[in-house]
Structure prediction request, 257 residues.
Amino acid sequence: MNLGLEGRTGLVFGASRGIGAASARALHGEGVSLALTARSRAALDDSLSVIPGALPLTVDLTCAGDAEAAVEATLSRYGRIDLAVISAGAAQGGAFTDLGDDVWASALELKFMGMIRALRALVPAMRKAGSGRILVIVGNNGVQANKAMLPGSAANAACLAVIRGLAEDIAADGIRINALNPGPTRTDRWDGLVERLSRGQGRPAAEVEAELLSAQPLGRIAAADEMGRLAAMMLSDAADMLVGTSLTADGGATKRI
Prediction:
């Protein structure tokens, strides 16, 4: 693609794996200078191997001050932050009656409050610059709740509510914020889900996966890099009229008009 992003700078929260890492790769391919965060420096080794020159930052979005430190370090290196991706947080699933307070608190603390902390750090810097683009990787179960993943559904729905409301507040400052809601995507989280189902059902993993894929309209799930390319597109000027938009990208699995 050529999205006109060459020469811009970006900060990716959660760039060590999955869709966050894929988004970083796509932005790098578009010529964006990047700062990448993960909970440990070692976790970024794979991303840094394909994105030479990126600024690695150790950030835990459950810790107060880490997001601000990441923004300050990125500004110190590049002088501005044109683009930002927030891709952090996963939640334990299970039957509703089996989930304790700790599961619900954990889901909200990382996914929802992690996003809040990142936004509180990013928005003032972008307001000062007079422009910016923010994309939050949320998840389609925030708009189509899944009975087996209710903590994640609740955290994602809360994220979408804040994104929609904040978008109206910051649009006049030249800042656009949107959400990308992926459906099932081939990442380590997908592999883990298949393994858990395989163990729980006493069936081969290949059989379980084939059954899951048969329910998908395309007969397959997304590759992480497909989501990464969508993320780059949503951060480009081509998507300038998207304000507070929640884009579902699940291959047609969600059945709504």
Q: What stands out?
A: The longest strand covers residues 175-182. Residues 101-129 form the longest helix (29 residues). The mean pLDDT is 90. The chain is about 45% helix and 15% strand.
